[in-house]
């Protein structure tokens, strides 16, 4: 077992998990790991979520998220255009269904980076999905990363840390945990779990 993984469920060598869900508390490094992985393996397809959150500096519509209004999100939900959606720390987030299903039908590996509630919903509707939990090396380091990112005001950080306590308590629900000590190591392990390398 690799140094940063715990509780890994062995995957038979011929089984190709087609849908992988990456979850973990805000600030643990999910986006950083995924960006690193896709720099070297651009063929890994990452679903772009819709969100009612406002863009952070540098975030682009259609690349990092589809930034939508509350009314647009209402419509996406009412029209069943989302595979799953959840409210997280005061905003709504959802996975567009069509694009994910197209990729899966084409037999391509698909990655979703979503919160715990979304991961649970995906597990219910797609039992073949593999759920990966990204954990921080320690609580103190998680607080340091979330605060150090400098993208949220203190009240939002508090909200996200409250959610983080709930998410960390749910680690055992996931098939695999990767501890984000080294971005490079975690990216490599995630690629191996997705059977990309
Ligand atoms: P998330 O997407 O899970 O909310 P980010 O990817 O935005 O988290 O990472 C939060 C902060 O932690 C960023 O400033 C990022 O540079 C930093 N970070 C991510 N992974 C590591 C790591 N392995 N070691 C140190 N800092 C990290
Ligand atoms: P952020 O605002 O930091 O980009 O994301 C906040 C949380 O929302 C993170 O845990 C992220 O994984 C999650 N998230 C992003 N997109 C989706 C989605 O489509 N569905 C769900 N359920 N969560 C999402």
Automatic annotation (TrEMBL):
Function: Essential for recycling GMP and indirectly, cGMP.
Protein biosynthesis listed as a keyword: no
Catalytic activity from the UniProt record: GMP + ATP = GDP + ADP
Enzyme Commission number(s) of this protein: 2.7.4.8
Keyword Transmembrane helix applies: no
NCBIfam families xref list: guanyl_kin (TIGR03263)
Binding site for ATP: 24-31
Family label: Belongs to the guanylate kinase family.
Residue stretches spanning the membrane: none
InterPro entries to which the protein is assigned, alphabetical: GK/Ca_channel_bsu, Guanylate_kin-like_dom, Guanylate_kinase, Guanylate_kinase_CS, P-loop_NTPase
Disordered: annotated span: 1-26
Domain Guanylate kinase-like: 17-195
Protein name: Guanylate kinase
Record keywords, A-Z: ATP-binding, Cytoplasm, Kinase, Nucleotide-binding, Transferase
CDD domains in alphabetical order: GMPK (cd00071)
Pfam families assigned to the protein according to its UniProt record, in alphabetical order: Guanylate_kin (PF00625)
Domain of life of the native organism: Bacteria
Location(s), subcellular: Cytoplasm
Gene Ontology MF term list: GMP kinase activity
Main location: cytoplasm
């Amino acid at each position: 077992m690799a140094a940063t993984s715990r509780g890994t469920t062995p995957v038979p060598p011929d089984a190709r998990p087609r849908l992988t869900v990456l979850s973990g508390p805000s600030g643990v490094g999910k986006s950083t790991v995924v960006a690193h992985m896709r720099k070297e393996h651009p063929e890994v397809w990452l679903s772009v979520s819709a969100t009612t959150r406002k863009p952070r500096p540098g975030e682009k519509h259609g690349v990092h998220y589809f930034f939508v209004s509350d009314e647009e999100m209402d419509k996406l939900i009412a029209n069943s255009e989302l595979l799953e959606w959840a409210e997280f720390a005061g905003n709504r987030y959802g996975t567009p269904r069509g694009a994910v299903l197209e990729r899966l039908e084409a037999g391509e590996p698909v990655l979703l980076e979503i919160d715990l509630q979304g991961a649970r919903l995906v597990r219910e509707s797609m039992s073949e999905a593999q759920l990966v939990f990204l954990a921080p090396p320690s609580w103190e380091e998680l607080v340091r990363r979330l605060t150090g990112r400098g993208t949220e005001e203190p009240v939002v950080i508090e909200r996200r840390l409250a959610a983080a306590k709930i998410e960390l308590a749910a680690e055992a629900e996931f098939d695999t945990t990767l501890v984000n000590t080294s971005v490079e190591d975690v990216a490599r392990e995630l690629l191996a779990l997705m059977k990309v390398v």
